[in-house]
Write a structure and sequence with these properties.
Number of strands: 0
Strand content: under 5%
Shape: flat
Radius of gyration: 40 Å
Structural class: mainly alpha
Number of helices: 3
Distance between the termini: 96 Å
Length: about 130
Amino acid sequence: MKFKIPLLLTLLMPLLTQISFAQTLTELQENSVSGYGIEPEKYYPGNVVLELMHAAEAEIEAAVNEAFAEGYKASMLQYAPDLAALRIKESVLKSELSREKKKNCFFLPMAGVSFTAGVLITFFLLR
């Protein structure tokens, strides 16, 4: 009975410390012209800076697309021999499979005929 209160305080202590460390988020100013936070004509000509930022974004996007295309081409060239070898192996395996199917196409009918013949012979011999 005397340990309930200290135990309760011990269990509540981590919750209270977490609440005391919580902080509020700082809000960005909404009066900026673009997502970069540039305020035109305050310290520098903002319109010129915005034009430069948009040009830089366009150049970055073009460079990324070009790098992706070059990487794609390089990987295709790297794996082209492996792909050709796999296609050749596929055609060889398909031809082997068709040959095996032709070889085994008489197996089931012959097995059925031999089973039937065995049953008939047994029936006539035991009679």
